[in-house]
Amino acid sequence: MLHWDLRELPIEVHRPEVLQSDGEGRAIAINLPAGERLQEHQVHVRAWLFVVEGTIEIESPDGETIGGGTGLLAVFDPAERREVRATEDARLLLLLAPWPGAGR
């Protein structure tokens, strides 16, 4: 069994940490400082974004914005575009499945 305490994991800013990656999925820890963003992007697989600490806003290309803090879980369909902004320092967990997906 693999395990991590995501609140204590030393994650460098601008260097996402791949925690696990195999044919079933990928888990990535991200440290996103306040005011910074993951520019509009998409992945070819289903994605789950969980806020471990901090507060973020997620904006879709149609302008819909949702915000939330610790405990927020957002699920994105394959190829769904979005932009994530940290409104305060945030620690995030991104899960992708399956990995690699079609087109990767």
Question: What does this protein structure show overall?
Answer:
There is one protein chain. By secondary structure, this protein is mainly beta. It is 0% helix and 54% strand. The protein has no helices and seven strands. It has strands spanning 17-21, 26-32, 37-41, 46-59, 65-69, 73-76, 82-97. Strands 1, 2, 3, 4, 5, 6 and 7 form a seven-stranded antiparallel sheet that branches. Strand 1 (17-21) and strand 2 (26-32) form a beta hairpin. It starts with 16 loop residues before the first strand and ends in a 7-residue tail after the last strand. The mean pLDDT is 91.
What's the topology here?
Elements lengths: L16 E5 L4 E7 L4 E5 L4 E14 L5 E5 L3 E4 L5 E16 L7
Antiparallel strand pairs: 1-2, 2-7, 3-7, 4-5, 4-6, 4-7
Provide the succession of SSEs: EEEEEEE
* Percent strand: over 45%
Low-confidence stretches: none
User: Level of helix content?
Assistant: under 10%
Briefly summarize what is shown:
The chain is mostly beta strands and 104 residues long. 0% of the residues lie in helices and 54% in strands.
Which features characterize this protein?
104 residues; mainly beta; 7 strands
